[in-house]
Amino acid sequence: MQLPINLSFLLKKPTGTTTYALNLLPHLQKLDPILLTSQSFPDYNCYPTPPNLTSEQGLKGHLRRLVWTQFQLQKIYKTLKSNLLFSPIPEAPLYTNSRFIVTAFDMIPLRFPKRLSPLTTYHKYYTPEVFKQAEHIICISESTAKDITQFYQIPSNKITPILLAGDRTHFQFLNLPTRNYFLYIGRQDPYKNLQRLITAFSALPNRNDYELWLAGPYDQRYSPLLETQTQELGINHLVKFLNYVSYDELPIIINQAIALVFPSLWEGFGLPVLEAMACGTPVITSNISSLPEVAGDAAILINPYNTEEITAAMQTIINDSETRKQLSEQGLKRANQFSWEKTGLATVEVLKEYL
Q: Which of 86, 94, 43, 104 is CA-nearest to residue 69?
């Protein structure tokens, strides 16, 4: 009995969902799955899917994938004589006799809805049907589990939180000299709270001795507003927009930062926090959503709506070398508690229960 794994969404430049799926795969191999993918995986049985079903083709790619999922994926499921499908994203053929388990990441489009946004519509109408019809739901934090119950009234016994992990061979302490910049990693959407971060940075009494580096893809919708803000505050020479930073470069810029500042208003997990802790870089992050689950007591937790708190935390990092050392040591210990092996084995246990 084949276990098909839907990987039709994989990107060539990995972001969250792709990273998650690729790190799970080695641990799912013991279930002898068949991968539904357009990419090459020589060590696995693969079933080819069209190469144009991803967000790399924009909204059209998403829509093509949803149509393919509803009609072609159901046919593949029958052809393979499967009795369970695993989709590492919340997509599956609806109103069919397919049995499936999906992974849920966050309800951010519902918490921060954008008018006329396809993502808000997707989460409002499509995702709840997927969750209701799923055999079981895996999600990436206790926070997301609570959101699924709150937004969709899905019973909690149908949901298993399995925390993510980081790549510990890639993100590690490199013993490089610290440089005077605070670092943020991620997209520049409003819920990421970069306007408050920039305001907080500008309020540092000795801000001219430091820089703020924003690592993440330039977004025509939001980045120009942030650039204008830095100009109005007179700190455009201190704030660097790095655009997309390659996976290979990330450990170096994390290791050399004086701290990662990640004041997001909501996260399904918050991978940059874990990656920074694994590098021994002090972390300032929010005291809401999943972020305390990830950071534990190894970060300075702030109210992300309070710019004065963010400023005060950055000032503590600047002034207090003992706190920096302590956060670095605690972060390294905390990061060691997360592993893809742990995540993968827990996922296998859930899948085996329903196979």
A: 94
pLDDT tens digits, residue range 190-213? 999 999 999 999 999 999 999 999
Mean pLDDT rounded to a whole number for the chain: 96
Distance between CA atoms of residues 186 and 218, nearest Å? 10
224, burial (CB in 10 Å: exposed 0-12, middle 13-18, buried 19+): exposed
Angle at 240 between CA 239 and CA 245, to 5 degrees: 145
What token pair was written down for 62? 């998403």
- Listed in sequence order, the residues at least 6 apart from 315 whose beta carbon sits closer than 8 Å to its beta carbon are 204, 205
Q: Are the C-beta atoms of 182 and 314 separated by less than 8 Å? A: yes
Nearest CA among 46, 37, 43 for reference residue 8 = 37
Q: Give percent of the chain above pLDDT 90.
A: 92
The token pair that represents 219 in the structure block: 């977004």
Distances (CA, A) of 172 to 136, 247, 252, 275, 335: 34, 13, 9, 8, 10
Beta-strand (E) ranges in the chain?
3-6, 33-37, 45-48, 85-87, 100-104, 136-139, 159-161, 181-185, 211-215, 239-243, 259-262, 283-286, 300-302
In whole angstroms, give the CA distance from residue 68 to residue 165: 30
Written as six digits, the tokens of 7 are 């990987």
Q: Which residues, in sequence order, are bridge partners of residue 243?
A: 215
Instruction: Copy the structure tokens of residue 144.
Output: 């997301």
pTM listed for this prediction: 0.92
**How far is Cα 235 from Cα 334, in angstroms, rounded to an integer?**
34
Q: Is the pLDDT reported for residue 291 higher than 90?
A: yes
